[in-house]
Structure formats: structure tokens, C-alpha cells
Amino acid sequence: MEVSYTSIFIIVINREGDGIMPKPGYMIGEVYKNLLKKRATILYPFKEKELVHLPEGFRGKLVFHRDKCIGCQMCFRVCPAQAIKIIEDEKGKRPVFFMYRCIYCASCAEYCPVKAIEVSNVFENIAFDKETLVVK
Predict the structure, then answer these.
(1) Structural domain that includes position 121
(2) Residue 46 contacts by C-beta under 8 Å, 6 or more apart in sequence?
(3) Three-class SS of residue 98?
(4) Is 100 within 8 Å of 130 (Cβ atoms)?
(5) CATH number at residue 80
(6) pLDDT tens digit string along 25-73?
(7) pLDDT value of position 8
(8) CB neighbours (10 Å) of residue 112?
(9) Phi, psi of 117, rounded to the nearest 5 degrees
(10) Integer CA distances (angstroms), 39 to 33, 36, 51, 68, 123, in order
């Protein structure tokens, strides 16, 4: 028997194990009952982002302030996901954050002695190219 969504649906409904729906149209009443109900979820992309409730202490995308950074590499050392790489630029050493590896624990922001790393309320980290998810 080829497995498809329909075959799984029929097998789940039929508890006798023979793979045949006990009564044709068994779920039709439930379908009609829920057809006109209001949606339980919000459609994405959100038209009104202020309707999305963010809990207290929400940890979103990182914001890096290069002018505050002293190059101590503490963020690099405490990151459990190894989502931070240290590079050298004209001002010295600085971190680069790979948000596609980040687990949003905010350890880097907590341990930064000069608060050069902040956690924002931005929760949409969607991209076609993962290089757009790099915070420099």
C-alpha cells in the first residue's frame, strides 16, 4: 500500500486496523462545523506586527554596536552555539554573529562588559540567502 496523507488519515480514523473508513463521510460533520470558524492562528507575513504578543524577556535578533566594542572576545568564549567568529578590522578585533547558528540564549549580551551587544524584539529572521543573517 502506498503511503500518502489520505491513507494515513483513513488508517488513523479506523481503529479496527483493516485500513477502511467505517462510514463514508465520517468526518464531514466536523469539517462543516469548523469551516466557518474564525482562524486559530495569524496569517504570515503579519500585516499588523503590534498584534503579535512578545513575552517579557523575549530574546530576538542581536544588535551589535561596533563603537562600544573593546575586542575582549568574551562573547566568542561564552557562545554555546559557536555562532560568533572574531575578525580583525581597522579598529582591532571584533565579533561577527552568524544568526543562522544562534540559539538566542543571549549569553553574549549578558557577558559583554561594555554592553556592545543588545537583544532586540525583532523575531523575523527569514532570508533566502544565509549571508543576510550575519550581523557585522
Answers:
(1) 53-135
(2) 52
(3) strand
(4) yes
(5) 3.30.70.3270
(6) 777 888 888 888 887 777 776 666 666 788 888 898 899 999 999 999 9
(7) 46
(8) 21
(9) -120, 130
(10) 13, 9, 15, 46, 22
